[in-house]
Amino acid sequence: MSSGSVRDEEEEEEEEEERLIKKALDSKKNTTPYWRPVILITMMFIIHGTGYFISAASQTQLLEDIICRNHYRGQRPQPELQSAISSKESCKAAAVQEILAELLGMQTFFDGIPGLLLAIPYGALADKYGRKPILIMSMFGQVLGFAWVIFICWAELPLKIIWLSSAFTVVGGGSTVAASIVMMVIADVIPESERSKLFFYLQGGFICSELVGPPLGSVLMGKSPWIAILLGFGFIVVASSLALFVPETFEGRKISETATSPSMDTYQSLPPDEESLDDELLGPKQLRSTATSWFRHCLQTFMFVLSHGSVVSLVATFFIADFSRQSLSLLVQYVSERYSWSLARASWLTSFRAGFQLLFYLAVFPATDAWLIQKMGWQAKIKDRRMAKLTIFLIAISFIFLALAPQVWLILIGLIIYAVGSGFNTFTRSLVSSLVDPAMIGTLYSTLSVADTTGSLLAGPLVATTYKLGMQLGGIFHGMPYMLSFGLCAIAALVMSRLKLNDGTPKDDNRAVPTGNLAVRTSATDIESLSDALS
């Protein structure tokens, strides 16, 4: 038999495997939602978020106290030092707050590096071996990172060592990969028509934790910051344990169990059985082959995104929105310093914003979503595009209030407007999901995670720098981080205003599908429909 005939047979087998996987994935979308993983994921989100928000303000308080002691040690007698720290007035000095802002900003920067470098490789693994193993690894890595921060604060070692906590998130890629896997699970089991609504409910569950956590943490801070920190850590451990019970939802993995001759050259790689998996991962030759496969997958992802103008634009706005959202991480410190509020009191603003976000995510957004589709007859992707335009505009407006507010009540108005616009990420995620084939959801969400993480990575030190500069300049420039966020969101709003989709294109005709080594369009009209997206 000639080598040409062998290649033809191999290509036919690969095409048949791809056809079977795509058929199974498409049929999965036509079934009713599979609620067990969704319920477990929601519980995990709520418990993990509650743990984070219980401990967040207390961790900031603890770091501020340590910085304050280190700053004034040797300058004042011990009784005066303890009195100054207890009154908190001396700890609001610019020298202390600048160190704290740098510490938190650089922590955000370092936290983003593992996710940025590993989101796509872990996404490739999730598309190959399933969602559950990656989710478990990611949650475990976050537990290790939190434990490291607790140890450094307890031992009062040099605080910059807490930046090493980011190294633990190499295990699983940290929160970036975890969020991406969660969205993959939802996309695996929820039909497209219900996806936006489910994203809202999931985010609403997380906001519940944002509503409950800060007040509880504030009460516990009155006794000791350590109580809130340790309780928050316990919540995170429990949430991470729930990942063990999330069922595998990746249909490609289940289908491949009966497939033969899996090829690593196809875009939708099929995992081998358990014995061959062990062999594949052990030998040097197999490791090189696996690394090559990962690199090829990353390259395919990059080429896919660049080849579709609408996807590029949406990923860019996703990056900008996340970059701007990171400025809210300084809100408690910003209000505490600018308006002379205690950190415990300022932390209530987080719950205030969360309360309005919860109202919109659990009631207003889902009701609006259903009304636009069922009553107005809008296609899902058209609805998502128009709502994304509106919400990014509102986010930009909210940052004007945060930047220029002379009094706290204007901050409250800005937070309400931000809550109305907070549906942007959900609408955008749902919109970009509708532009690709279900088999590429893992790749797509990995790309969004990279944009997400890049925004956080750059925002951390830049927000800290603008905050320090704003404190030095004073006056109207006090809110400089939020001025920067306004400018970026205004650019994103302009990009969204230029984004257009072909309203009359059948939704199954405007998806990218995997074939061979590259993701291509299904027809010439498909290429035109996406190339015209920005016209």
TrEMBL record:
Pfam families in the cross-refs: MFS_1
GO MF annotations, alphabetized: transmembrane transporter activity
Domain Major facilitator superfamily (MFS) profile residue range list: 44-505
Topological type in the membrane: Multi-pass membrane protein
UniProt subcellular location: Membrane
SUPFAM superfamilies: MFS general substrate transporter
Residues making up the signal peptide according to the UniProt record: none
One GO CC term on file: membrane
Transmembrane segments: 34-54, 134-155, 161-186, 198-220, 226-246, 302-321, 354-372, 392-420, 440-464, 476-496
Sorted UniProt keywords: Membrane, Transmembrane, Transmembrane helix
Keyword RNA-binding: no
PANTHER family attached to this UniProt entry: FI18259P1-RELATED, ZGC:174356
Name of the protein: Putative MFS transporter
Species of origin: Westerdykella ornata
Lineage of origin: Eukaryota, Fungi, Dikarya, Ascomycota, Pezizomycotina
